[in-house]
Structures are given as structure tokens and as C-alpha cells.
Amino acid sequence: MGSLETPTTTETNGSATPAVTSNGGDHKPPVTANGAPLSSTDSRIVMAQESEATKKRRASMLPLEVGTRVMCRWRDGKYHPVKVIERRKMHFGGPNDYEYYVHYTEFNRRLDEWVKLEQLDLDSVETVVDEKVEDKVTSLKMTRHQKRKIDETHVEGHEELDAASLREHEEFTKVKNIATIELGRYEIETWYFSPFPPEYNDCLKLYFCEFCLNFMKRKEQLQRHMRKCDLKHPPGDEIYRSGTLSMFEVDGKKNKVYGQNLCYLAKLFLDHKTLYYDVDLFLFYVLCECDDRGCHMVGYFSKLSVLWLMMQEKHSEESYNLACILTLPPYQRKGYGKFLIAFSYELSKKEGKVGTPERPLSDLGLLSYRGYWTRVLLDILKKHKGNISIKFVSDITIPLAAMHLFNQLLELSDMTAIKAEDILTTLQSLELIQYRKGQHVICADPKVLDRHLKAAGRGGLEVDVSKLIWTPYKEQG
């Protein structure tokens, strides 16, 4: 959402009030009951009385209750609507001196933060209403379509949770427990709550070893640790090296502490994922930038161990090739996210199967996947000029009008390792599925494809398959 346009404001007595502006002579001086203008002395008395009344009214509001809605000055200098999520008393303050943890209702929860009273415009405070009553009243005024849109917004990224579980999740994770972390040469502001062990509850900042991912409370502890830590890259096998980029495969069963630390770290930037303490089930693929000091983590993705699935005699009907994906904030917008996605599909090709990411995806993850699917499919359609060879399937009953399209989707799936359902939803979103001469077909008009490719933007970093040294577990066995 965009920022709100708000009136010009000035600071008064620690709170923001609308500035008085002149509108072509519209401003009128105070007058008496019979309309006569007040003297300058009387005007000052009236203004002082109004100022005193304003102070009393504001003081009566404090401290603000949890659930209060108010305007808050953000880092862009503008005021935005917020909801008070939590409050805490300030040390060495008066009875009404609190800090407030607020959610900017226009934006994602990752921007929630603690703010001081002077950042809040107390003149904009809305009366606190019981939320159940408020929801009931609001729902009576909404159409069915509007209700559905609101419900979809509330559970974005939490589609696997029912309403009760969602409320429990939001209550448990409503306040970020760690404000910043230090990882290598970066100090990074966190986005979300992560359930670190209780002894870290009083820490606003944590210090991570960028190689083994152990975390500490103080800088001195990290410095002592770095003198002893003999790792210069993630523990595991290096399966890819191209230029300064390396990919390491880390088995959660063999490197349990590293896997758990990676999950703690990732949860600080992922709101929608459950933290798995049993990392034995997972393989972690950690992408690094390498220099003479070592291999520095850029991001990672994880997936369930194929070996574990085989031992349990379980085969995922969903063909998941990725459980979780994260590019660390300092490395975002550099093409690494699409590189991680592309790498997961290259592994699927090596395994000889199609893949799809586990749901739900985060908002940024969904954008990355849509961008990747769009570019890969458009490139193939443009290269083949729409003439995808058809591999007919005779053992599935589908309408005759859809048979041609169905087989085209299967052929695209074989070529890309992208699941047919993901291909279909991507082509539908691009409006490339059309009904012609009694059957559904993929539209591959060159001008249309070029327009969509331009809108899709640049692709991510390319995976050089010749540099991938990796054997699927079933072949190793």
C-alpha cells in the first residue's frame, strides 16, 4: 500500500498536532458571544484555556490501552495508522511513561516496532472498541464478497491454520523478541518473532557466528568464539562452485545443531513457517559468497530428506522439492532468490521428477516463484514458437476440449520439472490459455510473449548445471 497523505504537522509538548495554515483569509480571530472581536489579552487567555484543556484531555488518555488505533510518525516522516499491540513501562519514567509496540495497518507485520509517545498523534486516538463487537458490527455492513476479501487478507501466508490457530499464532508471535542481529559484516534488523531459548528473552540483539551459526548475547563472546571456531564454510558437502558462488548440502541428521541454529535465524525473517526442532528430516542447501576469509551465507532452502522418505516408505504425493526458502535481507534484490528456486528445480531434474514448493509461501516467496515460473515458461514458448510436442496420455479421463492443453502442460512439466498445476495457474494469470476451435490451447503470439517477458523483469543468476556435482540419494543407495 502507498503512504497516506497527511496534513502538515508541528511538534508541540512532545506530541504532533496539525499545523495552523492560512487559507486565503479563512482563519478568523476569536470573538465574544455577541460577535465582537476579543482584545489581544482576552485572546491569549482563551488560547491558554484551550491549551490547558487539550493537555488534560491528552493526559486522560494515557497510558494508551492495547488495541488503541492512532496515527504514528514513521521513518519516512509521515503519519500512518497503527494499532497498539503491546506496551511496556519505561525505566526511570513517570506513571504514564510507556513505550508502545505498534502494527502499521497498511503494511506487513515485518515493520511492527516499538515507538515512543512523541511519535504518536494523540489527537487522532480512536476509541478502543471490543474487537468481537467491532467485527460483528462491521460484518453486518459488508457484502459477501467484501467479507471473503477481508478473510483472505487476514490469513495471507497462514492458509494451513484455522481461525483459532491463527489467533493463537498471532498472540504468541505478536511482539518481536530480538530487534537486531549481527551476522558477519552486517547488522540486520529482524522482521518477526523467533522462539529462542528462554535465557535469550532479555536480549534485543544477538551475535551470530556466520560459519557455524552459534549465537551469543555479547560481542565479546562472539570475538572469543571466532578465535576458536575452525569452520570457514557451512558444515556439509560443497555440491556447486561457480566463480564466487558456492552451494553446500547440509544433512540435518549429521549436523543437528547447525540445522537448529539455521531455523532460529530463518524464523526472524519468516512469519509463516513452523520452526522444526527435529531437523533430522531435512536437507539444507546453503548458498554462499566466497572470498579469502571464507564462505559467507547469502540464503538457503530446505527440503525433506529423500532418504528419510524412502526409509519411512513415504512418497510425497505433492512432489515437494522445497520446504522453506530465505534470502537474507542484505542480499535481497540481487537475483539470489530466483537462483535458489532454479537450483531446487535442477535437483528435481537430476532426480527425474517434477517438483513444487510446500505451501504456504511467504509474500516475498510467492513473488519470487511467480517471477521464476513466468520467465522459464515464456522463454520455452518463445523458443519453440508455441509448437510444444505433445505426449498423449490415454489412462486419464478428461474432457476432449481440454485434452490438447493437458498434454501440452505435461510436456512443459517434463521440460522444466515444474508441476503441471503451477504451469497452468501461471499461464492463466498471464491470460495465455485460450479456447479456439473447440479446444483449449496455449497462446504463443510472439508480441504477447515479448510484452510479458518485459513485464517479468530480469531473471535471476543462472545456474551453471555443468558445475553441479550431485547424485540423488536413491542412486547413492
TrEMBL record:
<protein>
    <submittedName>
        <fullName>Histone acetyltransferase of the MYST family 1</fullName>
    </submittedName>
</protein>
